[in-house]
Each structure stands twice: as structure tokens, then as C-alpha cells.
Prior knowledge:
Blueprint: H1 2-52, E1 69-84, E2 89-101, E3 114-116, E4 129-131, E5 138-139, E6 147-151, E7 156-168, E8 180-189, E9 197-201, E10 210-211, E11 222-225, E12 233-237, E13 240-247, E14 250-263, H2 266-283, H3 294-315, H4 327-352, H5 362-367, H6 371-384, H7 396-411, E15 418-420, E16 425-427, E17 435-436, H8 447-450, H9 456-463, H10 466-473, E18 475-476
Parallel strand pairs: 1-9, 1-11
Antiparallel strand pairs: 1-2, 2-7, 3-6, 4-8, 5-7, 6-7, 8-14, 10-11, 12-14, 13-14, 15-16, 17-18
Helix pairs in contact: 2-3, 2-4, 3-4
Amino acid sequence: MKCVLAVFSVLYSFKFALSQSQITKSIKEPESSLVSTRSQTVQNVSRLLDTLLHNYDHNLRPDFGGPSTEISVNMQVRSMGPISEMDMSYSMDCYFRQSWVDKRLSFSGYEDALALSIEMLSRIWKPDTFMYNGMKSYLHTITTPNRFVRLFPNGRVLYSQRLTIRSTCVMNLQDFPMDKQHCPLRIGSFGYTSDDISYKWMKGIPEPSFKSVNQAGQGDGVNIASDMKLSQFDLISTPTGTEVTLRNKGLHSTLIVNFHLQRHMGDFVIQVYGPCILLVVISWVSFWLNREATSDRISLGITTVLTMTFLGLEARKNLPKVPYPTALDYFVFISFTYIFSTVIQFGVVHHYTKVGSGEYYLEQLESEECPQMEKRKRSRLNTNGSSTLKEFRLSPSQLNKVMQDYRGALKSLPNGRARSDGGGSVLTPVSKKSRISTPSLSGVYDPKCLNHHPTAAIYRRVNRNEKDFSHKLRINL
Length: 477
């Protein structure tokens, strides 16, 4: 019995080993077939490329001697900037794609597009495209040159590269900083005329990270990154077009794209417009200062003028020396005129309102006698009978007549004598026994009381003879 069981166990183990070997063989067969298929495909593509490039002359354009070769161009802009007014230029980072059909490279037996290495570019023909208004452009080479080539079965070649393009942009700054700029980019062939190469815009492959900022059907050849932001401008639109340019005694097909930019006002409001408005308002503070505060008003005026000059120079620091004024220059000049006028106004007012024209300096106002107090004193004297003469007012002509009458009366007195005292005849008393006392006219013609009268100028002329007249009326008998 034991011998039978041993025989069965040996047979079972042999059968199990045989089944495992069959399963392993069935698994390895597809893998080996797949590897063999891949190696065969690689060999076929290698033989295909060798066949395509056999007797291929990369110095001749496609359809040489026949119709012109059509080059389709598409641009996908990743970023823009800086945009310089000093250099009249702008820069942008973009994917520049060109596509054309070369029937010499068409093939069959392989349905998908072939992604070729960049070494193939030296073995096939490619257009000599350049930027007409370019200043300094370069190809990105980190970590390897950023470009690739794809070959389609019908012979179409797609050539893409990542470029940073810097181009000229002639700007009109008359409306600065509220201006809109149109920065063009012209693309064409360096050596081929329109008989050999013609350019056209190609609508790009839709990608979620790119968008078109134009209306439907306009500027389909240029796409803008959806997350692109500019610091000083807003990109409004990118209209495209084609034209034929006469250059080097030949007509050349040219592509044109215009980047329409609108400038932001926020930075200039904060740095120029706001400070200028505040400086003008500060200069008006001198209108509320006292006229006698000469040093305060002059200091305020000179400080605002110098600050306004600094702001005007700072606003034009980043602008080219254009031969015409900008809108910002007009605003700064008008603000400067307002501030300068406040200083001129103070000088005019100070010149025509000097001492004796109706106002006093602070020191004189402190020592000035109050007109109301003087009036009450004179009223009390008249009430008590201290003075028998009433206050009277005389015109200059009446004053001269009274002086002449008293001068003649004194000459007729027996004991009167006159004394010459340089500037004229001054009468002196000759008797102290009795005297006719007359009130002083200083209260009547006091300039402190009459300074604010409309006829203050007349009373100032009268005041010059006041002292002599008072002595002449004090006759001592």
C-alpha cells in the first residue's frame, strides 16, 4: 500500500511541475513578442528616416522652382515685460511655432507623428525667419536648447522653440500717463522673397493655460497665457495681419502683430498727483497767516516751491527727453504756478500795505491808547467844566486861516515878542499872571483815533502841523 501511495505522489508532483512550466512559457511568449515588436518598430523608423534623408538636399526649399512655400506661424506668449519708455522697447517670452509642408519627407507605414531630435534640424530645410524690429532676442538653452521637431506622414513639419524677444516700440507720450501704446512685432524671411516663401498666421492648438484676448476671428495666430499680468499696463488686444514689404530690392512676405497696451494710473496718483494736490493746498495756508508773519509765510512758500520742483524733476526721471510736453508736465507746471503765485501774492500785499496805511504792527497795537477810553475821558472833562471849549474839527484850509489870525493878534500885543527858531516863528509866553488855556487838538486829530478813518491820509497831513498849532493857541497874557 505504501508503495502505491509513493507512486501516486511522484506522478502528481511531476504533473504539477509540467503545468507550471507551461504557464511560465505562456507568460513569457507575449513579453518577448512585445519586445520584438518594439525593436522591429525602432528598426523600421530608423530605416524610414534613413530612406527619407537619402538624396535629401537641405539647402533647397520644398517645391523648389515651383509655387512658394507657405509657412504657418503661431505664437503663445508666456509673459511680457519690461516695457521701457527710455529705450522705446518691450520684451516678451513666447513659444514660437512654425509649420510647413515638405513632400520630400512624407512617408507611409507609420500612422503617428514622429518626434525627432534637434540634431535632425541640421539635416532638413527650415525657413530663415527673423524679427524685423527685433533688438536683442535669444533662444533658451537651459538645460538643453528649448526646441523640438515633429514630422507627420503627409510631410508636414512642426518646428517649435522658446524665445525671448526684445523689439522696438515707438511710443507717443503726449497723453502720459493716461496713454495707450501700440507695440508692433514684424516677422518675415531674411533672404527669401515672396516668390519663394509666404507667411500666414496659424490658429494654435487649444490649451487651457492660453487664451485669445481678441474678438472671434481676429488675431487667432497669437495666444496669451491666462495667468499673465503686467505691472504697468493692461494688454487690451493683439490684432494680427499680413503685408508685403519692399526690402533689398525685393518683395518680402511679412506678418504683423500689434500689442495694444493701456497704462495703469495708480502709481502716478500715489507718487505725483496726490503730493502735488496736497502741496497746493498747503501753500494756501499762508492766506490765513497774519500779514506781519513775514518769516512764516516766506518759509512756507519757499519750502512748497522747492518740494514742487523736486516732484517735477522726479516725475520725468524715467521718461525720455522728448521734444513735446506730456500731460503730466502740464499738471506739474500748473501746480507749480499755483504755489509760486502764493509767494508773489504775499510780496504784492506786503508792498501795498505798509505802516500807516490802516494797520499797525503788533508792538504798536500793544501801546496804542483805546479810542473809546479817550472819548470817555473827554466827556468827563466837559461835564466837570474843566474845559470851556468844545471839541472842534477843522479842515486844513480853516486851520491855516486860524493860524494867520492868531499870528496877527499876537503882533498887536504890547508885551508880545517872537522868537525865531529855525523852522519858523514860534510864539512863546511873555506873562505868567494870566493865560487863556486852550484844549490840545491831539485828542481831536490824534492819528491813533483816526487811523482807520477813510480820510486817514488827510489827517496825517494835518498831524504834521499839530504841535506848532497847539503852541500858537496857548496864549499867555
